[in-house]
Each structure stands twice: as structure tokens, then as C-alpha cells.
Amino acid sequence: MLKAIIFDLDGTLLNTAPDIMRVLNASLAKFSLPPVESLERLYKMVGDGAYNLVDRAVPEDKKQLVDAVYKDYVPAFAACDNANTALYDGEDEVLEKLKAAGVKLAVLSNKPQSATQAVCAQLLSRYNFDMLLGQGQFPLKPDPSGAEYIMRALGVEKDECIFTGDGETDVKTAKNAGIPCISVLWGFRKKQQLEKAGATLFAENYTQYLQILQEKFLLKA
Questions:
Q1: Whole-prediction pTM value?
Q2: In terms of CB atoms within 10 Å, which end of the chain has fewer, N or C?
Q3: What is the DSSP string of 9-78?
């Protein structure tokens, strides 16, 4: 019986890409570095934590500036107004049904904890997530430590929990933690990329996601 869902954040619960690019480019500009010029390029850079994001954005001949750009970007993004960040179509209804069904909801993100808490407080507070866990306390995904901690804290077993995410890292995290994964196709990766990482279960939108929960995981909602 499904008792808990661990969600990735960026590209899964929230379309944060426009604000990530806006804040990152502002930090890059402070050091006279070229901007990330498109969301398509950004999609290839996100998913492995803020430091790796910055490292990928800084040109090869300027890598000595990575630490400085990172130190500027992290607090700037945590303080971001999230003006361009939004939920995905159909998400509100699904989250409401999950809460009504008594399913415990958690976020596990490679985004810094401060930014994770800030954006969730602004845009997801009405859903009363049971746990918000960003980068800081545990190694980055796909290390399973964060997912395992969440399951212990929520008091659920592996066969009572699933992972939901849009990236290869999420597929690998679920595998490493020994729990099923639903890979969503509205985020930052394409189906072929997820399949190469081992994904086998896909949702094209939140309506289909709810159907999968009902049919494969016996959700009563």
C-alpha cells in the first residue's frame, strides 16, 4: 500500500528553470562571464546540485572563478522572488488528492536547503509537505542517504514508498534506495535520456501520473 511519495523539486513539482537561469546569469555577469543563453542549454546543466550547475556554466578558461560565482549564486537564488516559477498543469488537483488520501509527501532536492525551503514556502506551503530536504545534510542524489532518511523519518517501509522525478539522478536515487520510480516527462529531460538511466515507468502529465498511482500502486484517490 502506498503511504509516501518522495518528489524531486526542480522540473517535477516546480518549473524553476526561468528563475534559475535569471539568477545564474546575474551572478555570471558580476564576474564578466557569458550568460547561459537558452533554457535548452540550462536543462543540460541542472540536476546535480548548485555547485555543478555553476561549474558547467563557467567557461573552461575561467574555472578559477567557479567558487566565487557559486558563493554569489547560492544566497541570491535563496532570496529570489520566484516570479517566473510555477506549478505544472494539473498538479494542484493531484497534490490535493494525495493529501486527502493520507499519503505523506516529501521533497528531496539537490538544490541547497535554503533555496529549497524558500521556494516551497512560497509556492507549495498549502500542501503541507511532511519533509523538505535539500542539499546540505546528506550527499547529493543519486546517493540514497537522503531518501533513506526520509523514509525512516516518515515511518514508512520501502514497499510503501515511491520516488518521483524528472532526471536521470532521480532514477538512480530510487534504484539505490530500493524503491520504485515514476519518471515524469514534463521536466528537464527527454524520455530517451531517462531510459538510458534505467527508467521504465513514465508519466506525460499529472493526470497520467495520478492514473499510474491508482493502477500500479493502488492509491485510493
A1: 0.93
A2: N
A3: -BTTTBB-HHHHHHHHHHHHHHTTPPPP--HHHHHHH-SS-HHHHHHHHS-GGGGGGHHHHHHHHHHHHH
